[in-house]
């Protein structure tokens, strides 16, 4: 599943179509395809793992789920979920969830929860964490209402950077350390974006999918943690467990 930085890259690729009219729409998405034709794309936004194609009175929300993808000015043999043709090019979406949201996107999204948005509010994230003191840190980092855009890679790398065991209880983690986790969730997301654009992302991973700790050399633990049962890679020596 693409994480927030990958959706930002998709958004940036599609900005060339802002202000352009859709001359043809196609695909097997269960939406009113005819409604889209002849409409002008007014903006392209992202919120966490959602790509948002904005029009005057509605927004098309694209969620790539586990296997979704897109191509700009290219095609592949897979069935098109949604295809949009403009005079200056086209976009094809595959195996994604497509939904129409009525009205302005601002009515549907809390931009302050998106770690990559200019409106990101770290104080609001800290307040939400204080309301979830009994949860595991590995779960709350993946909670899109708190850290929109953070996925499993970012979760693992942030917890390694901040030296926190993923099965730590939020309320047991010192406030200074919690603030560090919140801060790094945003910082690492922008590092992710930079490395992804440079095709260096996997080379920069310190713990995700790795076998040995780069700091102490001991074997890392791979475990499916939390309510979400997502893969966590961590060092029991370097990452402290707060319980």
Automatic annotation (TrEMBL):
InterPro entries: FPG_cat (IPR012319), FPG_N (IPR035937), H2TH_FPG (IPR015886), Ribosomal_uS13-like_H2TH (IPR010979), Znf_DNA_glyclase/AP_lyase (IPR000214). Residues 206-240 form the FPG-type domain. Residues 2-89 form the Formamidopyrimidine-DNA glycosylase catalytic domain. Keywords: DNA damage, DNA repair, DNA-binding, Endonuclease, Glycosidase, Hydrolase, Lyase, Metal-binding, Multifunctional enzyme, Nuclease, Zinc, Zinc-finger. The keyword Zinc-finger applies. Transmembrane segments: none annotated. It catalyses: Hydrolysis of DNA containing ring-opened 7-methylguanine residues, releasing 2,6-diamino-4-hydroxy-5-(N-methyl)formamidopyrimidine. One of its GO terms (molecular function) is damaged DNA binding. Pfam families: H2TH. One of its GO terms (biological process) is base-excision repair. PROSITE patterns: FPG_CAT, ZF_FPG_2. Belongs to the FPG family. PANTHER family: FORMAMIDOPYRIMIDINE-DNA GLYCOSYLASE (PTHR22993:SF9). This is Endonuclease.
């Amino acid at each position: 599943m693409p994480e927030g930085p990958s959706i930002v890259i998709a958004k940036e690729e599609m900005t060339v179509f802002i202000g352009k009219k859709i001359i043809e729409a196609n695909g097997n998405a269960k939406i009113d395809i005819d409604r889209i034709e002849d409409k002008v794309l007014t903006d392209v936004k992202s919120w966490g793992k959602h790509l948002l194609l904005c029009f005057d009175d509605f927004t098309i929300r694209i969620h790539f789920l586990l296997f979704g993808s897109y191509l700009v000015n290219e095609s592949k043999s897979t069935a098109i979920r949604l295809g949009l043709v403009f005079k200056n090019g086209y976009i094809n979406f595959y195996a994604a969830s497509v939904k129409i949201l009525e009205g302005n996107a601002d009515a549907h999204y809390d931009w302050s929860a998106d770690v990559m948005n200019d409106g990101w509010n770290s104080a609001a994230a800290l307040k939400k964490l204080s309301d979830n003191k009994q949860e595991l840190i590995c779960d709350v980092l993946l909670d899109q209402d708190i850290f929109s855009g953070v996925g499993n890679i970012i979760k693992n790398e942030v917890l390694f950077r901040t030296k926190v065991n993923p099965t730590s209880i939020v309320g047991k983690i010192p406030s200074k350390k919690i603030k560090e986790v919140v801060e790094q969730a945003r910082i690492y997301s922008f590092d992710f974006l930079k490395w992804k654009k440079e095709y260096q992302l996997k080379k920069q991973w310190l713990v995700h999918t790795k076998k040995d700790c780069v700091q102490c050399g001991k074997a890392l633990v791979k475990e499916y943690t939390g309510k979400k049962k997502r893969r966590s890679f961590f060092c029991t020596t370097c990452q402290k467990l707060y319980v």
